[in-house]
Structure formats: structure tokens, C-alpha cells
């Protein structure tokens, strides 16, 4: 009995301490994940969607992340971080070569946000001009849903996962499941956090190795091996199987932003997008040593689009996804 009481007391103390900790805070790494760039036909309208539906906050433009030929950008702070990554929305080319990617197109296929009120956030997204992609019979009782913003970019919404695992994050996830099952939706009080950029590649393992060598991104969580009715209804593709894993992006504590690396058995033909395309076209990192990082990327199979100049470079990973690098 004494042992049980002692363990229970330790668990309660652990829960109190973990609930008060500031999660996902910025750390002083050699590389820091900093931004996602979307090229849009109507940047202002798209920015309004992310503000109204997902709780993004408009902030002054962050210097250094302008892409070649970019005339202006609306910069939003992605939700869930005191000091965290940003979303840059820029005007796309007058004649884009291709539109936003589908869920199984190669490239930056979707952005993901977690919330304690999935049905409520999906409802807000639809009211703000978005659409639902998943084909679940009961969307209002789903723990994870694929939607699209008004420009056609895919957004995944799901409940908070217990990461890093502790009593606080476990309770948060359990409470979210209970709310959905009991249909207790309250969109006005829902908490939202940006959690990952999904990358579709031909071989997720090789892509993970590229990012390990270049920005020291490490695998996190379990390997994914999805098949069956759930994933078919989730992505809206019959007979699909998906394999992959998350890699933790540098610059944040445990549970911070990740790249979700997926390989589909039924890949689409479009992508990755280029600078003249619409959709999610780039991600950006602050780096301690710009030249060293560019050299590492080129050595690992990436390509250089714009060589280091004025503290900035534009490169691609091994799959031709565009990456912006800015000297810290």
C-alpha cells in the first residue's frame, strides 16, 4: 500500500510539473526551422483564412526569407508557440505551371495542426471558405480530418498527441477524445498548434537520411504503416497504403515541429512545386554556418538554386523540395 501511494504521489507531482512547463520552446541549435512559404492567387484572402480558421497572427515581415523575384509577403505566426515558425504567403506567378498538390503528390503535400476540438476547427475552416477532403461517414466524430484551404492546399487537423509523453499531454489527448465522442464542440475555446509539414517522397528513408546528414533532424515517434479503410477514408483514395516516419526539426524542445515523411503506393504525378507554382513551395531555416550547410546539402544530393549571397541561399533537398537558408 505504501508503494502504491508513493507511486501515485510521484505521478501527481510529475503531472503538476509537466502541466506548468513551457513546451515546444525555441532552443539554440545550429539549425532552426523558421518558416513555410505558400504562393497564392489571392494572398490577402488566404491570410484571412489562416487567421480566422486556425488562429494565426499577422506579424511584421521577417527579413531575409524573400524568394527570388518575390515582391511582397504577408507573414503570419503559426499558432501554439511563443516564439515559433511563421507562414509566409506570397503572390504566385501570373501563369503558374501547376496548382496546389494533392495529398499523394510529391513535395510539401500538406500542413498539419492539432486541436482539442477537431469538429469545431473543421467547422471554422469550412465557414472561412475551406472544404473537407476526408470521406468519413461521421466527420463530427473523427479524431483526424483532411481539409483544404480556399486555394486548395491540404490541411490535416487532429487531436493533440501525447508528445512528449507525460501525465499532462496524456490527459490532454484523452480529454480531446472524450469531447469528440460526447460531441462537446466549442470552436471559440479550442486551442490550436501547428505541428508538421508533410513531405511525399519516393523513398522516405532516403529523405530522412538526407535531413539527418544536413540539418541533424532525428527520427521521432513510431514508424507509420497505414492501410485499410481508415487511411482510405482519411486521404480519400481507395486501395492506398502509406509508409513513413516523422523527423523532429531542429530549434525546438521535444514535441516541436516535424517533417512527416510519407511514401504512397499510389503516388500522383505532380510535384514537387517550383518557384513559379502555386501551393506550399518552400520551407526555411535559420543556420549558424550558411556555407557549411549549403556544402552539406550539395554533398548529400541536394541542388543549389541561389548560391549564398547577402546571408541567404536557396537550395533543394534530394527530392527537389525548395529550402531557404538564412544566416543567423
TrEMBL record:
<dbReference type="InterPro" id="IPR037523">
    <property type="entry name" value="VOC_core"/>
</dbReference>
<dbReference type="Pfam" id="PF00903">
    <property type="entry name" value="Glyoxalase"/>
</dbReference>
<protein>
    <submittedName>
        <fullName>Glyoxalase/bleomycin resistance protein/dioxygenase</fullName>
    </submittedName>
</protein>
<keyword id="KW-0223">Dioxygenase</keyword>
<keyword id="KW-0560">Oxidoreductase</keyword>
<feature type="domain" description="VOC">
    <location>
        <begin position="32"/>
        <end position="160"/>
    </location>
</feature>
<dbReference type="GO" id="GO:0051213">
    <property type="term" value="F:dioxygenase activity"/>
</dbReference>
<dbReference type="Pfam" id="PF18029">
    <property type="entry name" value="Glyoxalase_6"/>
</dbReference>
<dbReference type="InterPro" id="IPR004360">
    <property type="entry name" value="Glyas_Fos-R_dOase_dom"/>
</dbReference>
<dbReference type="InterPro" id="IPR041581">
    <property type="entry name" value="Glyoxalase_6"/>
</dbReference>
<feature type="domain" description="VOC">
    <location>
        <begin position="193"/>
        <end position="328"/>
    </location>
</feature>
<dbReference type="InterPro" id="IPR029068">
    <property type="entry name" value="Glyas_Bleomycin-R_OHBP_Dase"/>
</dbReference>
